[in-house]
Amino acid sequence: MPSATALAPIALNPTLGQRLAGLDRTQKLRLTMGVALLVVVGVVGLVMGRQAEWRVLYANLADKDGGAIVAQLSQMNVPYQYAAGGNAILVPADKVYDTRLKLASQGLPKGAVTGYELMDTANRFGMTQFQERLTFQRGLEGELTRSIQALSSVSSARVHLALPNQNGFFRDQQKPSASVVVGMNTGRTLDRSQLAGIIHLVSSSVPEMDPRAVSVLDDTGKLLSTPPGDGTGAANDAEQMQRVQQIEQLYSSRIMDILEPVVGRQNVRAQVSAELDFSQTEQTSEQFKPNQTPDSSAIRSQQILESGAGAAGVSAPSGVPGAVSNQPPGATTAPINGAAQAPAAANGANGANAPGNASAGARKESIINYELDKTVRVVRAGTGAIKRISAAVVINHQTTTDAKGKTNTTPISDAQMEKLTSLVRETVGYNKERGDSVNVVNAPFTSDKIKTEPVPVWQQPALLDLLHSLAWPVGTLLFGALVLQGMIRPGLKVMAQSVTTRTSNAGASALDAVESEQPERPMLAAPTASVSQPAVATPGELALEDARKLTRDNPAAVANIVKTWINGESPA
After folding, report:
1. Cα separation of 424 and 445, whole Å?
2. CA-CA distances (angstroms) from residue 363 to 303, 307, 329, 508?
3. Model confidence band, residue 292 (pLDDT cutoffs 50, 70, 90)
4. What does the pLDDT look like over 413-455, one tens digit per residue?
5. What backbone phi and psi angles, to 5 degrees, belong to 267?
6. How much is the pTM?
7. Which of 65, 177, 424, 445 could bridge across to 109 with cysteines, CB 3.0–4.6 Å?
8. How far apart are CA 399 and CA 444, in angstroms?
9. 28 Cβ neighbours under 8 A, 6+ residues apart
10. Residue 190: per-residue pLDDT
11. Could you tell me the CA-to-CA distances from 108 to 88, 91, 115 in Å, in that order?
């Protein structure tokens, strides 16, 4: 007769070890790999899901600044990494701005350009005068470079100074000079005022430097500053073109401002072409006025010449020859325009005897030079004078709406077009003698309506950021589900089938053994009457159900088996 432990596997659930024992070697290997892969996927998904997004902290740093920043980040316990190529330092996205402010408070990055801070370590023992002068020049170049880089249009700059040595001879002194190389930001240029500011900045920072000795180049090697003595060369072409564009834009905006209130916005288009004269001319003229009256004239010089026997009071020789007659005459006076006087004899004896000899052979000449009334005029014509203006204006048809709400377009009348043309002429300063032309045309505007399609939901930035943040978690779950479905679930299914098969075989053999006995039915029917049928049958429940069926079909045999168990007898 079977013992009480013979039917124990029928009522008990199989353990995990029993299930694994029912798998072959391939199934065990596949199940182990699936579980290990599932664990790895879960760990990787958890790590990547918690990993922070990296952003650029600083890029294109000098080696010195990069090392200082990395050392400071290590002290601040801020994680960092290098971008591809090592030209940028990356930190977590939520710490970018906080880290920049903390580094800025410590003066980082300092930049590759060094200024007067070189002088802090320059006072060391043994430094020569040449080294001191060179250190000062390097510091001055660095300070000028920093000032130039502060401009919004300039991305980089480099300054070279040529400072000659000073000697005791003033005539042999060489003047300093400078060269500046600037790198421009994308789409930015230097206008003439900014260029003049850079030249003035450099020349004012160095004593006795002439602004004409400063050369400015861009990063393509093009000379931006005007060479000395070339004020009218090709260097002014850009400035002239800019001046023309400013004039044209000014007149176009004037036309738009005067017509838009009349015809409405988006109903007028205007283009102005200006021709300017940039030639430099100089004219000098001298004018002489006619001779003026003697009262208003100014005498420049006067010369009177008198000759003859009685010229200037000189008397003719007369009297008795001898010592008395050869005496010099006395003092006489001769006015410029006065009448001639008769000369007197030296002793007064012979002058009275010959009165007619005083005017014999006398001659008088007078030369007077007057100042000339001359006017000298020098006229220098200004550059950039307007030679001719051409304006073209197009006005849209008038739009009217009838009582039914239908929109119609009608052309503008000739009288109104004449008024609008007069407005445009007055706006641009129309001058017929100068050759100006103004054309105002009325035509319907045709514009294709551009349909702006809404951005699809899957292309919206907010949704893209959300998908980017959920990519790793969702991907991890999907991959884990594939591993569970493809590798782990088949192994578990095989384990369940093998255990069920073994339990069924054991229950069948036990039932075959008890059918040959002669049990008493009431002893087995009472305990089994209170057992309820589960919704899902397990292998143990299936074996129990087989036992119940045997009890119903052959109650006598079951009762005999129970009786034998109670008496402790062995089956025959």
Report:
1. 20
2. 14, 5, 21, 183
3. low
4. 999 999 999 999 999 999 999 999 999 999 988 865 556 677 7
5. -115, 10
6. 0.42
7. 65
8. 10
9. 20, 491
10. 85
11. 15, 16, 15
